[in-house]
Design a protein that fits this description.
Order of helices and strands: EHEHEHEHEHEHEHEHHEHEEHEHEHEHH
Largest sheet: 7 strands, parallel
Number of helices: 15
Radius of gyration: 21 Å
Oligomer: single chain
Shape: globular
Number of strands: 14
Helix content: 40-55%
Bound molecules: uridine-diphosphate-N-acetylglucosamine
Strand order of the largest sheet: 3-2-1-4-5-6-7
């Protein structure tokens, strides 16, 4: 059977790594990987392929930056041709980024069976672009693979048929379990060791920060409020802040940070980290501060207290069973809760059921069972792109 998997942005890469690894164990599967090119910087894309040992994509659509509408439309136009040529038995999309929805829409328009991995999550906040992507992708998917019970409830409430919904666990935690031993031995990023303001004493506690959502960083007043809280926290514990390009642009525009300085008042501002670098720092951090979805799950699996700078989460199991706490866009609360964590009073939790490292095995087995005749699919003669991808991940499709 032929499975076409589409990826585009940083969190996608982590999710497909265990899925593609599992597919490679099935000789009857002809796995094709397409990268939309939504994320194209080395740190945001290729570094992840290297760390996560993902085979080079067969095609890179090279869509790059743009408005969400432009990104979605470009991906659809370019992907339609690929789907026509490859005729997959099933298309697999993961997560909630613009590439996810664009690929899902293209598959649905072409009448191809569609599987969504990480289905059913809902923040109930339609102002988040990811929420719109989730709702729409789930509405047109034939196989809905879910990470936590709330996802099943959401999908059934939205009228999705029960027999299409599979609670399988969390592929992001598959990746974490597989790569944690390697990450632990990974060298510390040079920027944090070189003499200067960014240097961190790793024999002492530190906090790790990620912020990139439009709702957190696009409004300068909000970003300033959070930055001020981080400076306050950094008086008690050094903070490491690998900065997403979107956030860096906003910080520079707002005059919050001078890239030439590298650090400000105990906050080490560094470029985005690779998967292994980030996982190492995350697993050894005393405190995590984030607005990311995936980091809420990873910290729950690692048992690290996580303060989420958002008003809601689409991953409520990280609150009810895990180490996650929502502090809202509230600087004072963020400082108070950070101090509690530093006093050893941070939230305790445990990994949810089925977050056991085997979600991708369940998903691939389910897909193989659904397409018993698919074994006849002829393998495509399609060499991986490999080094022919240029710095922005563009190919000459
Ligand atoms: C996207 C996802 C978000 C995910 C995040 C992880 C959507 C709607 N959002 O957000 O769910 O958590 O990725 O990183 O798909 N840029 C670069 N280099 C890159 C990529 C982006 O400089 O490699 C800059 C560009 O200026 C771009 C901006 O970042 O305009 C935003 O990128 P975009 O892909 O639109 O969304 P993200 O904020 O990365």
């Amino acid at each position: 059977m032929r499975i076409l998997t589409v990826v585009g942005a940083r969190p996608n890469f982590v999710k497909v790594a265990p899925l593609l690894g599992e597919m490679s164990l099935h000789p009857e599967i002809d796995a094709i990987l397409v990268h939309t090119g939504q994320h194209y910087d080395y740190e945001m894309s290729k570094a992840f392929f290297e760390d996560l040992q993902i085979p080079a994509p067969h095609l890179n659509l090279g869509v790059g930056s743009g408005t969400a509408t432009a990104q979605t439309a470009e991906i659809m136009l370019r992907l339609e041709r690929v789907m026509e040529e490859t005729q997959p038995d099933v298309v697999v999309v993961v997560g909630d980024v613009n590439s996810t929805l664009a690929a899902a829409l293209t598959a649905a328009k072409m009448g191809l069976p569609l599987a969504h991995v990480e289905a059913g999550l809902r923040s109930f906040d339609r102002l988040m672009p990811e929420e719109v992507n989730r709702v729409l992708t789930d509405a047109i998917s034939d196989f809905l693979f879910v990470t936590e019970p709330s996802g099943v409830e959401n999908l059934l409430r939205e009228g999705r048929p029960k027999e299409r919904v599979y609670l399988v666990g969390n592929v992001m935690i598959d990746a974490l379990q597989r790569f944690l031993p390697t990450a632990k031995c990974h060298p510390i990023p040079p920027a944090l060791q070189a003499p200067g303001k960014s240097r961190i004493d790793f024999t002492r506690p530190y906090g790790l920060v990620t912020l990139h959502r439009p709702s957190t960083v696009d409004n300068l007043a909000t970003l300033r409020l959070i930055w001020t809280a981080l400076e306050e926290i950094a008086k008690d514990v050094p903070l490491i802040f690998p900065v997403h390009p979107r956030t860096e642009n906003r910080m520079e525009e707002g005059g919050l940070y001078d890239p030439l300085q590298g650090a400000s008042n105990g906050i080490s501002v560094i470029p985005p980290l690779s998967y292994l670098q980030f996982l190492k720092l995350q697993s050894e951090a005393t405190l995590m501060i984030t607005d990311s979805g995936g980091v809420q799950e990873e910290t729950t699996a690692l048992g690290i207290p996580c303060l989420t700078v958002r008003e809601n989460t689409e991953r409520p199991i990280t609150l009810s069973e895990g180490t996650n706490l929502l502090v809202g866009l509230n600087g004072r609360r963020l400082v108070e809760e950070a101090r509690k964590v530093l006093r050893g009073e941070g939230k305790k939790g445990h990994a949810p059921k089925l977050w056991d490292g085997h979600a991708s095995t369940r998903i691939v087995r389910m897909l193989v069972d659904q397409f018993p005749g698919g074994g006849a699919a002829k393998r495509l003669v399609m060499p991986p792109l490999g080094e022919s991808v240029d710095a922005r991940g563009h190919s000459s499709l």
